[in-house]
Amino acid sequence: MDEVEQESSCRISPTMHTDTGGEYLKSAVMTATPEKLQLMLYDGAIRFGRQARDALTARNFETSCEKLLRAQQIVTAMEDGLRHEVNAQLCRQMAELYQFVYGRLVAANIQHDVTALDEALQILEHQRETWRLLIEKTRESTPTSEKSVIQSSAVESTLCLQA
Predict the structure, then answer these.
(1) Does residue 69 contact residue 7 with C-beta atoms inside 8 Å?
(2) At the fourth CATH level, which superfamily is domain 3-11+21-159?
């Protein structure tokens, strides 16, 4: 079953792609730094993955499908946000990692495979923690007056994020 068949095999409500967190979430996204946005993407993918895991273990396949599709969309967005012109080698490696995670999420969805989902979650959780530590380290090592400029350019350049 390919991705199109997968999406059509579970019912998706028309509100699935809408902002359920309201104005607070919209404001948080609109005012967040690129670094914080990346952290928020990891948080979202992990949250939907965990919800899918709970649904899979409860044999609620419709909900697990919906949550896994949401996690897949986030992983795709992270891969699409890579800026290969900044650091081609690192971006290639990150793209391969995101593709692997995406594939494990698809396998979890199609085969109702909790092990595949756990593999994807383990990678996402590790990447999220790495990202958090990088942000923290950048903040600690930079004088306050220079933090925003240096943090944005250093982290963006190093991890090839799309601003």
Answers:
(1) yes
(2) Flagellar protein FliS (1.20.120.340)
Q: For residue 1, count other CB atoms closer than 10 A to its CB.
A: 12
**Could you list the pLDDT tens digit for every one of the 163 residues in the chain?**
444 444 445 554 444 455 455 776 666 667 778 888 899 999 999 999 999 999 999 999 999 999 999 999 999 999 999 989 989 999 999 999 999 999 999 999 999 999 999 999 999 999 999 999 988 888 887 665 444 443 444 444 444 544 3
* pTM for the model: 0.74
Q: Where are the domains of the chain?
A: 3-11+21-159
CA dist 120 → 3, 6, 10, 155 (Å): 17, 18, 21, 24
Q: Would you say the C-alpha torsion 115, 121, 124, 126 has a positive or negative sign?
A: negative
